[in-house]
Every structure is written in structure tokens, then in C-alpha cells.
Amino acid sequence: MGNRKVGGYGIEIKKLYKIFGPNGAACVKLVEQGIGKAELIAQHGHVLGLRHINISMPAGGIQVIMGLSGSGKSTLIRHINRLIDPTAGEVLIGDEDVVKMDAAQLREFRRHKTAMVFQKFALLPHRNVLENTLYGLEIQGAPRNRQVDCAMRWIERVGLKGFENRYPNQLSGGMQQRVGLARALANDAPILLMDEAFSALDPLIRVDMQTVLLDLQKEIKKTIVFITHDLDEALRLGDRIAILRDGEVVQQGTGQDIVMKPADEYIASFVREVNRARIIKAETVATATTDPRRELRISVPVGATLEEAARAMTSAGESETAVVDEEGRTIAVLTLRQAVDAMVNSQTVPATADVKKVA
């Protein structure tokens, strides 16, 4: 597809603070000393947006930032392309600190290294699908024939071939969001920022768009930062997930980490109703083996869910299955008992957990 940098850029967010108000920098010390969000606004008239955020986002993966309304997730993603300036901290893209870029550097960074997909589509109503899709390339000053060729390629990839001459008001919500995705991909930027991109869509269309994104990511391998308030969406999309509450990271890790080992009662309340059978991978609970040649009558591939593994065992009348890698080597053995226990038993929350419930 001619991507400028396959695999994207890694993103490192270090000691990031955002305090809204005229003297935000002066309040950082207070926040470091432990003053809370309520006290900061009551006593000093400033709003705590983000507190001491440290997240490492590997290149070429999907990093989900999840939280309820007011948690700071949208504030955080806007620091990556510096639509919001931090009060303190670093945002490192490759070896560059976005916080230290001057106006010209920032403009070039936004044009060539990042693209954004919004919840409200943000399409230009007077432009048709083709003209909306090539808009970023037009801003970059690319030759017209390259603009059209690239835009048409991505229009086809997101399933809108034949609609290139339609206008936004002639499209459904799901189709409009496909245009927004095509426009972002046409920019050929290594970093894709998606702020609640599918939240305005009906449930079935939302799942369809998730599938489109996952299928595309297998090929484009961009660094994607995806904001959502929906745990099912986070678990389906995220290679890694960071959960925010009141501007702080409560827990981060893989979806398996968060479902199996919630850090506190707040996280546990999120994952309590999750269908664990469809989320937890067989290798997560299987017993590792050092004998790659060990053979069992049935096997499931790495990445298979417990539901898939349990179905395979019960269908074959077996009580255990091998978990095999891409070369067909056995890396673990999963028993039906292990699968069932993991499906129905929640991990105990640490005794030191914050017992506040989800609002």
C-alpha cells in the first residue's frame, strides 16, 4: 500500500500532567503531593485533567485508552498530536518530543505522521466521498493524480467502491465513518488516532467497523490509539489497554491481564459481566509444556478462546487439548477442567484495592 513507515512509530508518554486553569504549572507540585481533583478545584480553582500518566505504546499495535466520561481519555489522545498542550511531561514519538516542537515542526508532524478519526465523522458536507477522502493529501500538496489514485484505493478497501460520488447526507452513519477511516488511511500517516470513532454507530454496524479495522490492521500495522468507554470494544481491539479514572491510569496491560487479574474493585466491576469464555485465550490458563513434540488427539491454535477450545474438546469427547503455535508445535496443554474454571471464576481482587464502585 506504499505506507511511509510500516509498523508506525512507538509512542512514549512520560510523567504527563494536564491541569486546566491560569496557573496550572504552579499546581503540579500540589498534585504531586497528593491533592485530589475535588480539592484542587475547590481550593485553587483549577481542574485536574491528567495526573502522572506513563504509557508505552509499541509501534504497529492497537493501544486502547478506556474510561468512563470525565476520566481524561479524550484529553490524553489530544496530547499526542498536541491539540492540547500538557502542563508537564513528555510525549515521545520515535525520538522526537512533540511537546518541544515549534509551530512549523508541529504542522509537519500533524500533516505527515498522524491522522485522526472522530466520533462525529467530521466530513465536509459540500464534498463527495472521493473529495473528502483525498482532503488530507490535498493539504499535503500531493499531485492530483496521486490524490485520486490513493483515495480510490482506500475507498475500495473500506467497502465504498461505487459511492465515491455520493455526498455525506446520502450515506448512513456507518458509511460516513468508513469515509472518515478511508480519509485517515489515505494520509499514509504511521499513527492513527481514533477518538470514540465507533461510539455513535448502531451496535451491529459498530461490530462491523471493528472487524474492518482489525482486518486492515493485519496489513497496514499502524500504531493506533483507540479511545472507548466500552470494555467489549476495548477487549476486542486492544493489543494493550490502559484504563483511566479521574485522570489517572488505574491499570494497564493486555486484555488477558485485565480480565484475569483486575487491579482493584473498580476494574473488577468493569470485567464482572464480561463473557470470559469468548475473551480469555487458551494459552493464558493452559499448562506450559517443554516437550514441543508432545501429541494429543486434538489441538487448538494459539489465540483460540476458551469457548473454542471447550467446544473442540467436548465435540471430540476429550478432556484435554494441545495448544499449538504457527509451526504446529505444542506449547501448552489445556484441560476441560481448567477451561471451565477460568470461564466461571473471577480473579480475587487484591485486599488493598480501592473499593469505590463504578459511577
Broad shape: globular
Count of runs of 4 or more consecutive helical residues: 16
Number of domains: 2
Radius of gyration: 23 Å
* E-strand count: 14
Largest sheet: 6 strands, mixed
Helix percent band: 25-40%
The level 1 CATH classification of the largest domain is Alpha Beta
Can you name the CATH architecture of the largest domain?
3-Layer(aba) Sandwich
Stretches where pLDDT is under 50 for at least 5 consecutive residues are 1-6, 348-359
Structural account:
- With 359 residues, this protein is of the alpha/beta class.
- It has two domains: 57-271, Rossmann fold; 276-344, CBS domain Like (Alpha-Beta Complex), CATH 3.90.1280.
- The chain contains 16 helices and 14 strands.
- Strand 7, helix 9 (203-220) and strand 8 form a beta-alpha-beta unit.
- The chain is globular, with a radius of gyration of 23 Å.
- The model is unreliable at 1-6 and 348-359 (pLDDT under 50).
Short description:
The chain is α/β, with parallel strands linked by helices.
Short descriptors:
359 residues; alpha/beta; Rossmann fold; CBS domain Like; 2 domains; four-stranded antiparallel beta sheet; 14 strands; 39% helix
